[in-house]
Design brief:
Order of helices and strands: EEEHEEEHHHHEEEEHHH
Largest sheet: 5 strands, antiparallel
Helix content: 25-40%
Strand order of the largest sheet: 1-2-3-5-4
CATH architecture of the largest domain: Alpha-Beta Complex
Structural class: alpha+beta
CATH class of the largest domain: Alpha Beta
Number of domains: 2
CATH superfamily of the largest domain: Aminoglycoside phosphotransferase (APH), C-terminal lobe
Radius of gyration: 20 Å
CATH topology of the largest domain: Aminoglycoside 3'-phosphotransferase, Chain: A, domain 2
Number of helices: 8
Strand content: 15-25%
Mean pLDDT: 93
Number of strands: 10
Low-confidence stretches: none
């Protein structure tokens, strides 16, 4: 499949990688000179998307985001596939490390991740974009309507729906920037020398740009100290009131619109999605307090 990649003749080892949710085929590569690479191979139908991802990754490296360097991109396998070659990063997923750390260490790691996210968001979206609220609600309104017509009701769902309807104006005229697309603790690697690297720039959500604060909808609240640190790192310790309202908005919208998805496509996850909605009602005290109960500063 990959024999017509220009660098193929330098490959001394090719090992398939099974881990991960992406549809790409992934390979660990070693080359002459002991270079180690990650090779991702996708169907040729994804060429334009993969080209955009590759260009975005090169841009992110240029502005100082710690991440694998994008090395090469092109077509392979007799024009049937598109490939991306990236630098290989050794380390552990933060998702595996955080549970082993003291609360203070979790918070410090979160602060670091928040600063990295802020750097990612320094890359502004093109100027000729539609208003964020128009782009967001063109997707979310349909999903909320689906919940109203065929969702699984739960205690307090009317409070979330009322909060979402009553605060739609908060999304108007929001600054827009490029997104990672799936910024969570499973996509951050901690290297042997304790540096963090962001991986897996392959989720296309709202074309990977929009309100920068929307990316907090995947924040790892299962580790409150880490999540609190990420917020504080992003805002240099002073998150504004407007952020809390939008965080509550994005988290609750994501949770309630996941109910119908789980019902039809992942029924084994339905109970956990319903529990998430119950948790959100608790975190935001019935949607009356935008600052979640899990947020705290750690010394």
């Amino acid at each position: 499949m990959v024999t017509d990649i220009p660098m193929y003749d330098t490959f001394t080892k090719i090992r398939p990688i099974e881990k991960g949710m992406s549809g790409d085929k992934k390979y660990y590569i070693e080359t002459e000179g002991n270079k180690r690479l990650l090779l991702r191979v996708a169907d040729i139908s994804e060429y334009e998307q993969k080209k955009t991802e590759y260009e975005l990754m090169k841009k992110m490296v240029s502005i100082g985001v710690p991440m694998p360097v994008a090395i090469d991109f092109g077509i392979c396998n007799a024009d049937k596939n598109v490939y991306t070659l990236l630098e290989w990063i050794d380390g552990q997923e933060v998702e595996e490390i955080v549970p082993t750390l003291r609360e203070e260490e979790q918070y410090a790691l979160g602060v670091n991740s928040g600063k990295i996210l802020k750097t990612i968001h320094s890359h502004k979206a093109q100027k000729d974009t539609d208003d964020w609220s128009m782009r967001y609600f063109s997707v979310i309104d349909e999903r909320i309507n689906a919940f109203n017509s065929e969702g699984v009701p739960f205690f307090g769902n009317e409070k979330i729906l009322s909060f979402l309807q009553g605060n739609k104006h908060l999304l108007e005229n929001r600054h827009q920037c490029y997104h990672h697309g799936d910024y969570h603790i499973g996509n951050i690697i901690k290297s042997a020398n304790d540096q963090l690297f962001v991986i897996d720039w392959h989720t296309v959500d709202f074309d990977n740009y929009g309100d920068p604060w929307y990316e907090f909808n995947r924040i790892g609240v299962e580790y409150p100290a880490f999540a609190s640190g990420q917020i504080d790192g992003y805002f240099n310790g002073n998150p504004p009131e407007s952020f809390w309202m939008l965080l509550a908005y994005y988290l609750s919208a994501s949770a309630i619109t996941s109910v119908v998805w789980a019902k039809y496509f992942a029924p084994e996850r339905l109970n956990s999605i319903l529990q998430l909605n119950a948790d959100i009602l608790n975190w935001f005290e019935g949607m009356r307090n935008p600052i979640p109960t899990w947020y705290k500063k750690v010394n």
